[in-house]
Specification:
single chain; about 850 residues; alpha+beta; Immunoglobulin-like; Neutral Protease, domain 2; eight-stranded mixed β-sheet; five-stranded mixed β-sheet; 28 helices; about 40% helix; binds arginine; binds zinc ion; metalloprotease
Length: about 850
């Protein structure tokens, strides 16, 4: 039962920790249900004399406590559920504590827990305090030595840094001692113990040092780690070339675990990954998985400089490491896989997750100013919008000044825990520019709406462009400032010839008019090229202009964007009861022409074929009616499928792989296009198309094709669909990662049978709410990726989600909290739905024994 209202933590309350922990010695006696942790901290006072030593500690059974070898008596310290406070301590001393913990009972998967019979840890953000008493805050950096002792059946004993010593002990036990020479905050601590297979390699750094690379996985799975290892080597090389960053230890390890709350974790020298983001073989991983593995391996590796060598002063600065590291991994992926396609995918993800967040009550600044649980702020805003801010900085300053600023940051702050202010100051100094107004991007929530109008004066050959911005209020921020917004603009002629190259126009203040001379003919304006800022753009362009861009914009992002804009307009018109049939035919025809362009990359064409998602469309109208959107989108899909049927079938045949699987971008692009064709053909399910889809599914050698076929069969429904689902389950029921996909594809069932199917799946023998991957595949898959069925008029979808939140909150609050967001948008929906959503949120909020995590989000969602 909650007894008091939890108090928020505020940025403005930041105070440095009044002690320094020079060294931290940890000794683990591992046993699944009773692990002993002895910690010896070398402490020195840095703050005012007389200040008490307060350490975090939760769910720890204290066994002994001593200062400089002298046991403390019970009246010398105070202990509650969250803290250990020793009122009087010397100025320099050694504190030794011993605690007992129960990893096998840890189903929250934070701190030390068991997964697949192995010990593993997750400490970011505040998990370390469930392992031992410690100042668990990112600005306390310490040098760690870790001794691990366990039964020899826990074959590998791993921690951060370098292996110093290892050996056998009596009674079938063994030990290992690790030392990490780099001072680090507690959230980067890691420990793994258990039976694992290892895939090894090495990397020679730019200064000629050899680094041993080891990837540890479940026994028998080593071959599945080859792609991740290859991605790691490419990341290491790329970071040297692109940013001059070299790896600093002689050993780099990655471990895959099956039960993990998020994607992966950048622990110093010992990254821990969700196995879904590490293991890949053609039959068990899709191209999207390969792509994600490549980018997440890079992301965690890049954290070694942006996060580990330079970390955050406090958790309000989370974007300092996350936004910057996402920017770095996106740049890496762009170099590996092609800039335009990568940019389109990144923007799709930004819109789907961050724009939705910004549009609802959970909107928050990239650097928030208060929180209840920091875990709730590992959001798309902090990660993805954080990355967009860095990208804008680069656009505004230019590549050279940007690099100079980043070099200065690495030089000045290496070894520190610092702030966003200190980061931006480096760029201001290196470029000589005043970035004061730019800082508002970190502090202001909400997506700016930019509008563009133009006037062309043929006689003067002059074009004037007016840009205006406005950001709607968000909760807690009623008044918004104007932000500096870089808008990249180029011009085309009406026949598609390029008229004028891209130029960055910086919109500062509410409105700006630029006048361009020497524009010889009435142009088509291509604005916000490459999505130069995270804003929504409306323009006074006619749809004829959008068709010019769709056919010919040399900026491929905007070419794609023009098609999306046209489709969005057509779907929304239909959803509003005013279909534009002529426009729809014209669109289908233009799409057909784009598909025939021999110069265009198949991966790009696949993106052209995907209509804006239902979620994306729901953001464009208020109030949103998911059923109307679903129907209208389906109608446009059907029209395209009918209009382009032969062409889609022809392309589907032509993109057939020629034997050997390769995960490279070109091969993946061909598969993406094949599967995009199959997806559209399912919207016109006549016998030939159904046969083609069934054939596609049955002949699939790679999982990408199998999943593409299965998903299309769900759209078709009926007997072919059920047969395929059963066959897929029979084939893969012993492969957890593949089985996750069997659950998630059914969660996205577009038919009105979806909720029944999902409910039945929660009773399935293979469903396991304790495993975050399995749970999210089904529940998140339904709530986030199946809007039409989640928003069922009866409210049954909402009830299902609320029930799941409450069930999982009992043991894994972090995973439960992530499910609140789909209900958070209740104000944007038609009142009949919005009311039902709100009621479920209220039910969640009122539930007894709710975690702080869920309480914070449910409360904010209702504000
Ligand atoms: N730092 C990790 C990463 O992005 C994620 C840690 C997630 N932790 C959390 N409490 N949500 O690479
Ligand atoms: Zn990260």
């Amino acid at each position: 039962m909650r007894t008091e209202t939890p108090q928020p933590i505020r940025l403005s309350d930041y105070r440095p920790f009044p002690f320094e922990i020079e060294t931290t010695q940890l000794s683990f006696q591992l046993a699944p249900s009773a692990t002993r942790v002895t910690a010896t901290l070398k402490v020195r006072r840095t703050g005012a004399a007389g200040e008490a030593l307060a350490l975090n500690g939760e769910r720890l059974a204290l066994k002994s406590i001593a200062i400089d070898g002298q046991a403390l008596s019970a009246n010398q310290y105070a202990l509650d559920d969250e803290r250990l406070v020793i009122a009087e301590v010397p100025d320099a001393f050694e504190l030794t504590t011993q605690v007992e913990i129960d990893p096998s009972a840890n189903k929250a998967l934070m701190g030390l827990y068991m997964s697949g019979g192995r010990f593993c840890t997750q400490c970011e953000a505040e998990g370390f305090r469930t392992i031992t008493f410690f100042p668990d805050r990112p600005d306390v950096l310490s040098r760690y030595t870790v001794r691990i002792e366990a039964d020899a059946t826990f074959e590998h004993l791993l921690s951060n840094g370098n292996l110093m010593e290892a050996g056998e002990l009596e009674g079938g036990r063994h030990y290992a001692v690790w030392n990490d020479p780099f001072p680090k905050p507690a959230y980067l601590f890691a420990l793994v113990a258990g039976r694992l297979d290892v895939l090894e390699d090495s990397f020679v750094t730019m200064s000629g040092r050899t680094v041993a690379l080891k990837v540890f996985v479940d026994p028998g799975q080593a071959s599945r780690a080859a792609y991740a290892l290859d991605a790691l080597k490419r990341s290491m090389k790329w970071d040297e070339e692109a940013f001059g960053r070299e790896y600093d230890l002689d050993l780099f390890m990655i471990v895959a675990v099956r039960d993990f709350n998020f994607g992966a974790m950048e622990n110093k020298g010992l990254n821990i990954f969700n196995s879904s983001l590490l293991l890949a073989e053609p039959e068990t991983a899709t191209d999207f998985d390969y792509e994600r593995i490549e980018s997440v391996v890079a992301h965690e590796y890049f954290h070694n400089w942006t996060g580990n060598r330079i970390t955050c002063r406090d958790w309000f600065q989370l974007c300092l490491k996350e936004g910057l590291t996402v920017f770095r991994d996106q740049s890496f992926s762009a170099d590996m896989r092609g800039a335009a396609v990568q940019r389109i995918k990144d923007v799709k993800a930004l819109r789907a997750r961050q724009f939705a967040e910004d549009a609802g009550p959970l909107a928050h600044a990239v650097r928030p100013s208060s929180y209840l649980k920091i875990d709730n702020f590992y959001t798309a805003t902090i990660y993805e919008k954080g990355a967009e801010i860095i990208r804008m900085l680069k656009t505004i300053l230019g590549a050279d000044a940007f690099r100079a600023g980043l070099d200065l940051y690495f030089e000045r702050h290496d070894g520190e825990a610092t702030t966003v202010e200190a980061f931006i100051a480096c760029f201001a100094e290196a470029s000589g520019r005043d970035l004061t107004s730019f800082f508002a991007w970190y502090e202001q929530a909400g997506t700016p709406a930019v509008s563009l109008t133009h006037a062309y004066d043929a006689a003067a050959q002059a074009l004037s462009i007016t840009l205006t911005q406005k950001t709607a209020p968000t909760s807690g921020q009623p008044v918004k400032k104007a932000l500096p917004i870089p808008v990249t603009i180029g011009l085309l002629a009406q026949d598609g010839r390029p008229l004028r190259d891209s130029e960055v126009v910086l919109l500062e203040g509410e409105s700006l008019t630029v006048r361009w001379e020497g524009v010889a003919e009435a142009p088509v304006i291509s604005a916000l090229r490459g999505f130069s800022a995270p804003v929504t753009l409306t323009t006074d362009a006619r749809s004829a202009d959008a068709y010019v861009l769709f056919a010919a914009d040399p900026d491929l992002f905007n070419r794609w964007e023009a098609g999306q804009g046209l489709a969005r307009g057509l779907i929304l018109a239909r959803a509003a009861g005013t279909p534009d049939e002529v426009g729809e035919e014209r669109y289908a025809q233009a799409l057909g022409q784009a598909l025939d362009d021999p110069a265009a990359d198949p991966a790009f064409k696949a993106l052209l074929l995907a209509l804006p998602t239902e979620g994306d469309l729901a953001l464009a109208v208020e109030p949103a009616d998911p059923a109307a959107i679903h129907e209208a989108r389906g109608a446009l899909r059907a029209r395209i499928a009918v209009h382009l049927g032969e062409q889609l079938a022809r392309i589907h045949g032509a993109m057939q792989g020629d034997g050997e699987f390769s995960p490279d971008a070109a091969s993946a692009g061909r598969r993406a296009l094949r599967n995009a064709c199959v997806d559209l053909l399912s919207a016109d399910p006549h016998a030939d198309n159904v046969q083609r889809i069934v054939g596609h599914f049955e002949a699939a050698a790679a999982l990408t094709d199998a999943m593409g076929g299965l998903s299309a069969l769900l759209a078709v429904g009926g007997e072919p669909c059920e047969t395929a689902l059963a066959a897929f389950h029979a084939k893969w029921r012993h492969e957890p990662l593949v089985l996750d996909k069997w659950f998630s594809v059914q969660a996205r069932d577009p038919s009105d049978n979806a909720l029944k199917r999902v409910l039945a799946l929660t009773e399935h023998a293979d469903f396991d709410a304790g495993n975050p991957n399995r749970f999210r595949a089904l529940v998140q898959g339904f709530a986030s990726a199946n809007p039409a069925r989640f928003h069922d008029a009866s409210g049954a979808g909402y009830r299902f989600l609320a029930d799941q939140i409450l069930a999982v909150d009992g043991f894994n609050p972090m995973t439960a909290a992530r499910l609140v967001e789909p209900l958070g948008g209740w104000r944007r929906y038609v009142p009949a739905l919005g009311d039902l959503m709100r009621r479920e949120l209220e039910r969640v909020q009122a539930a007894p024994g709710l975690s702080k995590n869920v309480l914070e989000l449910a409360t904010r969602a209702l504000e």
